[in-house]
Amino acid sequence: MFPPILKGMTRRVFHLFLLLCPVLLAAQAGPAQNDPALAVEQGDLRIEQRVDGGFHLYIRKKPGVASVLITESTRDPGLRSPNYAYRDPQWNPVNGDEIRLLDGEPLPRSSRLWSLIDSTPEPHPELGESFHIYIPYILHYGYEDSRHGEVYVVDGTYFNIRAFALPYADYRGRFRDNPFVLEATQQPLPGPAEGNYMKETVDSFTRIASWSGGIPVRSVGPADLVDRIRETLEGVRAPAMDIVICLDTTGSMKDDIEELRRNLVPMLQETLEGSAEYRVGMVLYKDYYEEYLTRSVPFTGDLAQLQRTLDGISPRGGRDIPEAVHEALYEGALGFSWEAESRLLILIGDAPPHLRQRGKISEEMVRAAAAERNIRLQAIILPQ
Predict the structure, then answer these.
(1) Which CATH number fits domain 193-381: 3.40.390.30, 3.40.50.410, 1.10.1040.10, 3.30.565.10?
(2) Do 205 and 218 contact (CB within 8 A), yes or no?
(3) Are 108 and 42 in contact (CB under 8 A)?
(4) Beta bridge partner(s), residue 106
(5) Collapsing DSSP states into helix, strand and coil, what is residue 282?
(6) Is 30 left (phi over 0), alpha (psi -120 to 50) or beta?
């Protein structure tokens, strides 16, 4: 039984499930497709979602398998369009230097086509010798002069592990397709809330708070979140205050947002009572490929209006770990008419920004925008 503070606290765990009835797989015809030496079973796999921009897939190295390649899981029924391998849009240190053969020749590095391929197994604590494939959240396939596009890898994504008898995905030998679907389950987090802060979140939020010479505040969740916001405000009280709250609104924040609905406005009424002038705004944020990236709520001195905003928040989404933290802070710095003597931007969330920049907003741009407008940044870290 978990203590009350942990109710609803879960982490998303990803698994790969073998598709038992693949449709029109692009595999070599005949016995090769059914070669048991090239079969990949569910127990041969481990997949980990990390904050470095994707998943790390480990595939047990079996005696008959010399290389693996990640490809599309199905083929054009009319057989007019090729079945393509998936690619990373950029070089990565796991598979970026792996050799891939096409028509018996190595794909030149100058092509900048980084296939999800491995011919050099490494030790894994559970599987033993294993192939290691880095799967970014965004996969590319095809070529400009033919069918091409991208796939966003999340819960429910289909893909295929093509196992080869020869290294470097050499089609001159036998190969077999092993189609899987990626599925996620929610599992409760063990231990006290204080032990469940994600290291990457702590590191990034600490860096953000340090830009204003501060240190981040840790909250254990709904039980003390509003108190942590109160303490933050009391540390910068002034006759005139402009406050913007950047709030993660993905699914993992559901319990925290419920607490803010109930108690944020009453706390603000009490805490800001001594300020002659105050305005409060919000930046709600999720992530790329979600319902929205950021959504701004303009400055207002009408806390009843702020309550209506809180009542309308729908905490959902967040299909990967990192969120649009830098994008939210940048919107907070540039999207509001900051005027007051005391200017405070409060970041509240449980997940880090993308370690690999996803869009056009960089950490340096956020820092420069806040400094130019004399905005103080503070961060409140929530457990996973």
Answers:
(1) 3.40.50.410
(2) no
(3) no
(4) 101
(5) strand
(6) left
d(CA 199, CA 351): 9
pLDDT band at 64 (very low <50, low <70, confident <90, very high): very high
324 close to 360: Cβ distance less than 8 angstroms: no
- Residue 183: pLDDT above 70? yes
β-pair type (117-118, 67-71): antiparallel
Digit-coded pLDDT (tens) for 163-181 = 999 999 999 999 999 999 8
- Using CA atoms, how far apart are residues 124 and 60, in angstroms rounded to an integer? 9
Asked whether the beta carbons of 246 and 324 are under 8 A apart, the reply is no
How far apart (Å, rounded) are the C-alpha atoms in residues 378 and 317?
25
pLDDT digits (tens, 9 = 90+) for 199-248: 889 999 999 999 999 999 999 999 999 999 999 998 888 889 999 999 99
Q: CA–CA distance from 163 to each of 62, 132, 171, 179 (Å)?
A: 10, 13, 10, 11
What per-residue confidence (pLDDT) applies to 73?
84
Report whether pLDDT(381) > 50.
yes
At residue 182, φ and ψ (nearest 5 deg) are: -90, 125
Q: What number of helices (H) and strands (E) belong to the chain?
A: 6, 21
Please give the pLDDT value at position 4.
Answer: 28
Please state, in angstroms and rounded to a whole number, the distance separating the CA atoms of residues 193 and 23.
45
Where in the chain do CATH 3.40.50.410 domains reside? 193-381
Q: Is the pLDDT of residue 1 over 50?
A: no
User: What is the end-to-end Cα distance of the chain in Å, rounded?
Assistant: 18
CA geometry: angle 151, 155, 156, nearest 5 deg: 75
Distance of CA 72 to the CA centre of its chain: 22
Signed CA dihedral, 316, 369, 198, 242: sign only = negative
221 sits in the region (left: phi over 0; alpha: psi -120 to 50; else beta) called left
